[in-house]
């Protein structure tokens, strides 16, 4: 009879934080360190949406200087994610030595915004997110579409939605961060414009501006699964055979598809090589133990 073994592979959540701003608006954030992967998987914060209201929005820098070593502001809604923790070309960030800046997202028309999700990843102090986000439908007579730093947005037709600060109170800042802003009682509001007033994470050196990877804006009229997009297709189990014909190892990676290459090249072959050896050694130990017991019984009967 063939032996089949299934191995469930999951990324470990290292840090979970919850904060509350204003009346009902909640800011949920999670911090992955060793478990961070290009899939941006979190336990409670949705992964970046492949399609959301942000996809067709126009992002622009209202104030501040873009760092030329990084991507343009379009990286925030292109659906592409960085491949590692230090991937400047896949992230938008403000210029080194500057205090941050402001980014505007024009959704094209006013929509009921259900959720705002932001993502970042860096191997140092440029991982955490520190910003305030404002919204406006653009109809107020006081409305200023692109308020510069120093102008309080709420004085020119904007509404403060939430303040975000994911910096750990202790420990390293490095890692991957996911933020989800929502209102459990309903929607965040009806907005055409969103304004992100972004601050640096530290000023001890010139490198405190966050590597922002993606922004998802969830339309309340979209399907309930918009934030997670359509379910991924099932990946057939990976099967490995050893020199022992009775040993077949089956590994299901659907819960961690990003580990496929590692399973195919490292884990699977290693298990195929060593499992039969361990099984043989275990069988020999059992046989030896059984033999000692029989000898002992024979000796007792002779007495």
Summarize the structure.
This protein has 303 residues and is of the alpha+beta class. It has one helix at 260-302; strands spanning 15-20, 26-32, 58-63, 100-122, 130-136, 159-165, 175-182, 189-199, 212-219, 238-241, 248-251. The chain has two domains: 15-219, Galactose-binding domain-like (Jelly Rolls); 238-302, no CATH class.
Summarize the SSE layout with pairings.
Layout: E1 15-20, E2 26-32, E3 58-63, E4 100-122, E5 130-136, E6 159-165, E7 175-182, E8 189-199, E9 212-219, E10 238-241, E11 248-251, H1 260-302
Antiparallel strand pairs: 1-2, 2-7, 3-4, 4-7, 4-8, 4-9, 5-6, 5-8, 10-11
Task: Outline the structure in words.
- With 303 residues, the chain is of the alpha+beta class.
- The chain has two domains: 15-219, Jelly Rolls (Sandwich), CATH 2.60.120.260; 238-302, no CATH class.
- Helices cover 14% and strands 30% of the residues.
- It has one helix and eleven strands; from the N terminus they run βββββββββββα.
- It has one helix at 260-302; strands spanning 15-20, 26-32, 58-63, 100-122, 130-136, 159-165, 175-182, 189-199, 212-219, 238-241, 248-251.
- Strands 1, 2, 3, 4, 5, 6, 7, 8 and 9 form a nine-stranded antiparallel β-sheet that branches.
- Strand 10 and strand 11 (248-251) form a beta hairpin.
- The longest helix has 43 residues, at 260-302.
- The protein starts with 14 loop residues before the first strand and ends with a helix.
- Mean pLDDT is 85; it is low at 1-22, 224-230 and 298-303.
